[in-house]
Specification:
Radius of gyration: 12 Å
Number of domains: 1
Bound molecules: zinc ion
Number of strands: 3
Shape: globular
Length: about 70
């Protein structure tokens, strides 16, 4: 049975030491960093909470959150 995980949150530390996160679809490889695999619900909550979605794989579109 395949895992239900379809999204991931990548945590990175910027050059200034500031921590930030972005939401990605599973197959996206544009960001490297500490990865936390999440299910659809967690990805939805993260995006709703203001965690930015990746501009390449556009997880918010997959989740129907795209407002632009
Ligand atoms: Zn991405």
């Amino acid at each position: 049975m395949p895992p239900p995980t379809r999204f991931k949150i990548v945590h990175r530390v910027s050059g200034g030491g500031e921590e930030y996160a972005t939401v990605h679809q599973t197959g996206c490889k544009t960001e490297s960093g500490e990865v936390r695999w999440v299910d659809v619900h967690e990805a939805f909550v993260a995006l709703s909470d203001g965690v930015p979605g990746c501009t390449y794989c556009r997880p918010e579109v997959e989740l129907g959150l795209d407002v632009g």
